[in-house]
Amino acid sequence: MIINNLKFSISIVIVFIVFTIIGTLSHEFGHIAVAKYFGFETTLHYGSMEYFKKGRNEFKKDKLFKEFITIYDEFSNEISHNLEYEKKERFLELQNILDNKYPDIAKEPSREEEIKRFFITLGGPIQTLLTSFFGLFVLGFRGSKNKISFQFLDWFAVFLSLFALREVFNFVTAIIKFIIFSKSDFYGDEFEISRYLEYNQWLIPILTFILGLSISLYVIYKIIPFKYRFPFVISGFVGGCLGFAIWFGFLGRLLFILD
Questions:
Q1: Burial of 236 per CB tally in 10 Å (0-12, 13-18, 19+)
Q2: Is it the case that residue 53 has pLDDT exceeding 80?
Q3: Largest distance between two CA atoms of the chain
Q4: Are residues 117 and 98 in the same domain?
Q5: How many domains does the chain have?
Q6: Given 3-state DSSP classes, what are the helix, strand and coil percentages for the chain, each rounded to the nearest 5?
Q7: Same domain, yes or no, for 127 and 191?
Q8: CA dihedral 137, 142, 148, 153 (to 10 degrees)
Q9: What is the pTM of this model?
């Protein structure tokens, strides 16, 4: 019995590590899918993604842009405070040339583009929650709630449904930063969505936290058989923490050299 419990716990730790990484990347693919739909070029990083108008790569490789950035890095304080500096004339000249040469890259985003950016931001949380809902659907379809013993598909659906834990994690880490480090501005997806909708920045994070916590508690305490429940929670917590530490600590950087 002890050996079986140990094997189960180790298996859950390993699966949580893997699914923490899968969940992180699939969340970013949610952003990427929407950005691609709107015609943006995208780049996937180990913990984020970038999207930009087509032609930006050519823009960044331009020698004039590189000179522009060099001057900006050297005199960023003077530029941001509109002070005089040695290469101001050349900097303004380069800025004008680049604005004319790459008008679609340089111009401020229009209202239409701002709306696109909103939906791109929305794409990540939507992907995460849709995956979670799909897992719940599979659990319901298989009648997993009434089972004493789980099969592979039952456990797979459990892990899919627990993608909603991301919303819990994001909210809890934001609260910790707010209380301990007095941080007041947050740039997670949920906070950005709240600000775009002109709500208090905490509204959407609180709602997604409640939703994510409700799904997670339901799955853990109503779906998973009692005999598995305690080792699953403990092993899941350990595996989730290890997965985060491994991916963001070294593995993600190792696999995504650009970061």
A1: buried
A2: no
A3: 78
A4: no
A5: 2
A6: 75, 5, 20
A7: yes
A8: -80
A9: 0.80
47: its two tokens:
């913990």
Q: List the domain range (segments joined by +) for residue 208.
A: 2-40+111-255
Amino acid at 61: K
The predicted-structure confidence for 116-159, as pLDDT tens digits, reads as follows 999 999 999 999 999 999 999 999 999 888 788 899 999 999 99
Cα–Cα distance between 208 and 119 in angstroms, integer? 17
Are residues 8 and 72 part of one domain? Answer: no
pLDDT of residue 49: 87
Whether the CB-CB separation of 164 and 128 falls below 8 Å is answered with yes
Helix (H, G, I), strand (E, B) or coil at 42: strand
Q: Residue 224: left (phi > 0), alpha (psi -120 to 50), or beta?
A: beta
Q: Which amino acid, residue 81?
A: H
Output the six-digit token pair for 110.
Answer: 């229009």
Residues 239-256 have pLDDT tens digits of: 999 999 999 999 998 888
Q: Give the number of other Cβ atoms within 10 Å of residue 83's Cβ.
A: 10
